[in-house]
Amino acid sequence: TLQLVMSHQETLLFSFGMLDAKTDYFRLLINYKVPGSIPLTTRELILSYNKLVTLPVLEMSYLNELVYLDCSHNLLEMGLDFTFPGIVKLTYLDLSFNKLSFVTPYTFSQLNKLLLLNLSSNPKLVEVKDKAFDSNPLLRFVDMSDCALTYVGGELFKDLHNLHSLRLKGNPWNCDCSFLEFCNWIKKADVVYPDSEEMTCNKPELFKGLTVNVAETKLHYLCLVHLDFQDFVFLGLMAICIFFGGTLVAWLVGLATVQLQGPSGGSLIARSEVTGNQTEGLLGSGAHLVERPPFRCEGNKQLSSF
């Protein structure tokens, strides 16, 4: 029998649990759905084990004092277009053991005060999109263990500077090169991973069963540029070839320059030799060269005309 247990009009319990004899509760039978008459002053609302498929978004948006909401162990489904009710003071949200499929930037966009989010044991949860928690900067505890996640982007938790604890075990992680960015974030972030030894890879076959921390080291070697001894030898030979090749080119350019300038210089020498031979020929034929003294002007004397 499903029961509604109410105490002090502040805490509402919808569960199959037994009535606590030490506390004065009020019982009420309900038919697998959340009643519309929830007191507006309710601070804690527990809807666990009720086989709920949907939540009354409109009615819950009026619970301005609600800080604790437990919707675990139900049949809740949230598609890509689902947006959680805008409960302004909500700090604790438990959605574990449901049938969630996606978490988008709109799913929790109205829960700005959220501190703890439990999404564990949702076997249909296959994707948490990047920036899904951008509207929840105060998050300190996130549990996404035992879901169907294969990949998480490196930007998902980057801006959650208050994040303290993160659980991710039990997911079939695909530890390929695209997963390396998230692995780097895990390594550098100041976050506690209580189940880090149980965060194992499911794919590829080479990494199956390895913890994410071990896989991260191997991914660095496989996915990033790295140099082996042979690579250094090859680069050294390339440097030597470039050096000697440059030297040879410079020598050839210099040699070509000398060859191109040679004929012009040689013609000048040849012309000088020809002029000298002609002069000697003239002297040898009896021609006399008359050396005429230079003219001098003395005082106001005029030069005599010839």
Automatic annotation (TrEMBL):
Keywords: Leucine-rich repeat, Membrane, Repeat, Signal, Transmembrane, Transmembrane helix. Coiled coil: none annotated. This is LRRCT domain-containing protein. Pfam families: LRR_8 (PF13855). InterPro entries: Cys-rich_flank_reg_C, Leu-rich_rpt, LRR_dom_sf, LRR_TM_domain-containing. PROSITE patterns: LRR. The chain crosses the membrane at residues 232-253. The keyword Aminoacyl-tRNA synthetase does not apply. Residues 171-218 form the LRRCT domain. PANTHER family: ANTIGEN BSP, PUTATIVE-RELATED, CHAOPTIN-RELATED. SUPFAM superfamilies: L domain-like (SSF52058). One of its GO terms (cellular component) is plasma membrane. It comes from Podarcis muralis (Wall lizard). The keyword Secreted does not apply.
